[in-house]
Amino acid sequence: MEAKRNKIRHLSWLYVIIAAMVMSLIVGCSNSDSVTKNVVAQSEKTNNNKKSSAIKGDTRTVKDAYGEVEVPTQASRIVVLDIGALDNLLEMGITPVGAPSILKIGDPYPAYLKGTKGIENIGSVNEPNLERIHALKPDLILGNKDTHDAIHVQLKQIAPTVFVETLGVTWKENLQLHAEAVNKQNQGTQLLRTYQDRIDKLKSGLAGKKAKQISLIRPREDKIQVYLKETFAGTVMNDAGIARPASQQGDGFSKDITEEQITDLDGDLILWFNREPDAFDKLSNRPLWSTLQAVQQHAVQPVDWEYWMSGLGIQAVNKIIDDLNRFLIH
Amino acid sequence: MNSKWGHKLTGLAILLSLTLLMFFFSILFGIAQISWESISKAIYSFDGSREQLIIRTVRFPRAMIAVFVGSSMAVAGCMMQALTRNALAGPELFGINYGAALTSVIASFILGTTSLQLFAGSSIIGAAVAGSLVFLLSSTGRQPLTSMKLVLAGSTLNLLFASLTQGILILHEQSLDTLRFWLAGSLTGRSMDLFFQIMPILLIGLICSLLMGRQLNIMNLEKEVAQGLGQQLRGTRIVCILIIVLLTGGAVALAGPIGFIGLAVPHIARLLIGNNYVWIVPYTAVLGALLLLIADIGARFVLPHQEVPVGIVTAFFGAPFLMVLAQRKGGMK
């Protein structure tokens, strides 16, 4: 009996050790996050006692992806749920009180955006933290239906929400709706007009030159993504009348290809961005890469994924036009 | 006796030639069009053209990896089924698949990269750690290393590793996509260098397992009978675990944890050849290569103009197989 018990104890020690290892691993991975979560939860408690002190001023009606919304005439505490809205608001001189990181909670905001200091991090674009948003006591929330449809009801209970339909290809409509939501319609229109001027200038600059086909790709660890016309950057290039390789003229967002289809990447100029650090090196080290015409002519340029892929606002658009000018005109 | 040997050898020869045929098909068929002539040109008069580069740097490594990974996974499953005397055993049951996956995920979490080289190195370590943990856990108690203990320790650890892997992936969203693809199991984008680094491990494992047939036969007898025949069960089991770690670790390192090959193939081999492990092991090895080659060719054509991970194809055919098996045999043989 005694011996058996010892044996059981012996066994269970092994399990205890494994469990301890496991626990320390989990805690080690997540401690920073849970600490801040506690702080938020506490500050929220104190806020609840004070009761919301939002001033009931005049309101305006804005039409968003769900219907008509009553928003404050001049919202002062705005929370944005995506980088496109953050980008647009900053351009119009408004600093939101809360905004998400692109990928992971706490990541810095895109480097191309200026004046993000002091903006409270509310999680990632895909997983915004409702408690944090609530704790910020916003009087307006800007999001998009595509990503945040599931939490629209909860968000509405926190503050008036203005949702655009989706991100990316609709960036012009989004800018207009954002401008309307913050009562800066004229500025929104002006920004779009400036954009059109810049596009026209780029077009006339290109008119005298031999047309170049631009390939836009994103190498990844397991595949290569070819960016098609219905992407954020694709719309800008389309507006400027820039030709794309035959393989990249389809509608849709992107196409996954493997190394065998490497000819789909070719063009007069290859622009690439990646988020996985080694993905491009892996591709460019392969023997097949050097069979591409653009590679042989050294017409391969890295571009910044933060605004070519994830920016989705007017500042990102302007940065893309800067790049295109640099690559194609000068 | 002699004619029986003859039949069995003929069967093996037929399977081998089928495998060879599939090997050529694997080089011939794909999204990019390749002609027969350019295959022979790529071998005998290589000129660096795009078509020949595809054959040499994409299709050929891929076919080689399919052969070795398929064989190794299948033989590892075969050894496990013999070791645990459980017809439903496979590399999944031993925690080795997910042990390898877990270390890869941890390594990429800490180092912040997701290169295949890193996955390969860390998954071999993970397989070894998982194998030793299974061994350690099932060595405790009065009757060490019984089939039941191995199964329990293995499946418990597998669940533990799987949940830890998921947990880390949730915290580490950036590499989620890459890892998800890797975890499904795939043969694309592997270079010949990586293959040559891992191949010796697999080769050693395969050769050792081919020499183990007689011991596996005895191990499959009742324990008392085996001991009566003078078999050192403990020693055999340790060697088995070592071989399983080599085969699974190496295969996962190359292709990720491809499922169901290890479970299904030994059964097909038994259907063809009976219950003698001296024959089951070589049949399993060849059949594993053959089936993974076929599954990998299938993976190129399931969706138009796009490939799916081969692990999904094997799971698609393997899952119904598992259900039939579980119903017929009730798990134990």
UniProtKB/TrEMBL annotation, chain A:
Segments passing through the bilayer: 12-28
Localization terms from the record: Cell envelope
Cited InterPro entries: ABC_transptr_periplasmic_BD, Bact_iron-sidero_bind
Domain named Fe/B12 periplasmic-binding: residues: 77-330
SUPFAM superfamilies: Helical backbone' metal receptor (SSF53807)
Record key words, sorted: Membrane, Signal, Transmembrane, Transmembrane helix, Transport
Keyword Membrane included in the entry's annotation: yes
Annotated family: Belongs to the bacterial solute-binding protein 8 family.
Designated name of the protein: Iron complex transport system substrate-binding protein
Organism of origin: Paenibacillus shirakamiensis
Automatic annotation (TrEMBL), chain B:
Key words of the record: Cell membrane, Membrane, Transmembrane, Transmembrane helix, Transport
Pfam families referenced in this protein's UniProt entry, alphabetically: FecCD
Keyword Plastid: no
Membrane spanning stretches: 12-36, 63-83, 95-112, 118-138, 150-171, 194-213, 238-265, 277-295, 307-326
Entry-linked InterPro entries: ABC_BtuC-like, ABC_transptr_permease_BtuC
Lineage: superkingdom: Bacteria
Compartment list: Cell membrane
Membrane-topology annotation of the record: Multi-pass membrane protein
Protein family membership: Belongs to the binding-protein-dependent transport system permease family. FecCD subfamily.
Entry protein name: Iron complex transport system permease protein
Species for this entry: Paenibacillus shirakamiensis
